[in-house]
Specification:
Layout (H helix, E strand, L loop, with lengths): L5 H8 L10 H13 L3 H19 L10 H18 L10 H14 L7 H12 L4 H17 L5 H21 L6 H4 L5 H6 L8
Helix pairs in contact: 3-4, 4-5, 4-6, 5-6, 6-7, 7-8
């Protein structure tokens, strides 16, 4: 009998991506459109298949998932990644962030990220990359630097790209203390500098 979180991990990484010995580049090539594609049909699929689990995670449930690396990772996906799909362009897209951060830090302190394949570790570090907190941004960059350094030569480019995105997020928080592209969704007033920044290419993640 498979673990209750396995269907989510299979959907997110592909069944092959949850096995051992599968190249990170292969998993990324097959799943990047799901992870970062912003397509309505994928958001609908996330909502239909995992919406109830997201609500449970947001309610502080699923505690029994959080005692080992794979369940920890799945809970982070439910709190950090799937709300950004299911509730896209609404304040609830970020509703799980405050729960995801301490959970991510707890697992990192336990060394659970080190027990996951490199491509899965990316989504534990993204929790910190999403934080409007410079110290957590700095930690995310450090973690992605290590991930790139540990990557096999053929996958340096893939993990260098993830590091580049982490640095870009860090720079925005260092400059503004928050992500200006979230202001409209969250009902925050943008400063003149933020408004000018949002007109620049690549200012929205």
């Amino acid at each position: 009998m498979s673990a209750p979180w396995q269907p989510l991990l299979d959907w997110w990484f592909g069944a092959a991506g949850c096995g051992t010995g599968v190249a990170a580049a292969e998993v990324a090539a097959s799943r990047t459109s799901l992870w970062f594609g912003k397509q309505d049909h994928q958001d609908d699929q996330a909502r239909e298949q995992f919406g109830a689990l997201v609500e449970q995670a947001l309610a502080g449930q699923l505690q029994d998932w959080q005692g080992e690396p794979e369940g920890w990772l799945a809970t982070l996906l439910l709190l950090d990644q799937l709300p950004r799909m299911i509730f896209r362009d609404t304040p609830r897209a970020f509703a799980g962030d405050l729960l995801a951060r301490p959970l991510a830090l707890h697992g990192l302190a336990q060394g659970w990220d080190q027990q996951l394949p490199p491509i899965q570790r990316v989504f534990t570090y993204l929790v910190l990359e999403h934080a409007e907190d410079l110290a957590l941004q700095d930690q995310a960059v450090q973690l992605f630097q290590v991930l790139r350094e540990q990557a096999v030569a053929a996958e340096h480019g893939l993990f260098a790209d993830y590091l580049d995105y982490a640095v870009r997020h860090q720079q925005v928080i260092a400059r503004f203390g928050r992500f200006p592209h979230r202001n409209q969704i969250l009902g925050r007033t943008s400063s003149t500098e933020e408004s000018a920044f949002l007109l620049e290419p690549g200012s929205r993640f």
